[in-house]
Amino acid sequence: MSDPSVLTLVLLVLAALTAGWVDAVVGGGGLVQLPALMIAFPGAAPVQLLATNKLGSICGTSTSSITYLRRVRPDLRTAIPLALLAFGGALVGALIASHIPRSAFNPVILVVLIAVGAYTILKPTVGEHTALRFSGHHHYVVASIAGFAIGMYDGALGPGTGSFLVFALVGLMGYGFLEASAKAKLANFATNLASLVIFVPQGAVVWSIGLLMGVANLAGGYLGARTAVAKGSRFIRIVFVCVVSAFVLKIGWDVIQQVRG
């Protein structure tokens, strides 16, 4: 990576602060932070951008996880297996990432995002309160499968991982948005950590940029978690719909460009 200007550093810090806030509320901060890195360093290797983004992101997910743990007190009997399987899935995903053409995923992700957004909009009461759909060991099995599958996606691709975790917990398992955001953040921290386990030994992380953005992402994560706790599930639902809509527009445009190309 080339040495950035002061203005570039300021814009990266602002992007990381925004990404941390969005990520803490409902996931999807990568939609802000990763493109900012791509614009700032157009000549950098993709693995450097991904690795540096993960370093910045894990700072935010760590502080938002702690805030949620203290203020929401999510049930760790579900959160821990979700996070552990997400960690394992992310390791697998990171290892196979280089063998999967990213263009093959965009149409599938676009369809899934449209379905997720439509479901949330058409069912305005979904996620307002926790009404679990599974009990006993079935509950933990479903959480573990969801964690592993979404973790593997994060390791292989990444965009929207936090949002997919939130929706799996809300739409599939029946959690309210606030409880889902708390559990999803613990799992997202685990997937970020797993990715760094792969990227750091490769020497892919640009530490100076990653740590600078990490401090800003941490501040955004703290503010976002406190905002989510204070505003509750209805506010998180609104942010969730906005973030998913932004993903649909971004990935939809990528698919159009891919078809034209």
From TrEMBL:
Location in the cell: Cell membrane
InterPro entries xref list: TM_pro_TauE-like, TSUP
Family matches, as Pfam families: TauE
Keywords: Cell membrane, Membrane, Transmembrane, Transmembrane helix, Transport
Keyword Signal applies: no
Keyword Cytoplasm appears in the UniProt entry: no
Membrane topology, from the record: Multi-pass membrane protein
Major location (coarse): membrane
GO cellular component: plasma membrane
Superkingdom of origin: Bacteria
Residue ranges of the TM segments: 79-98, 104-122, 134-153, 159-178, 190-215, 235-253
Family per similarity comment: Belongs to the 4-toluene sulfonate uptake permease (TSUP) (TC 2.A.102) family.
Matches recorded under PANTHER family: MEMBRANE TRANSPORTER PROTEIN YFCA-RELATED, TRANSMEMBRANE PROTEIN YFCA
Listed name of the protein: Probable membrane transporter protein
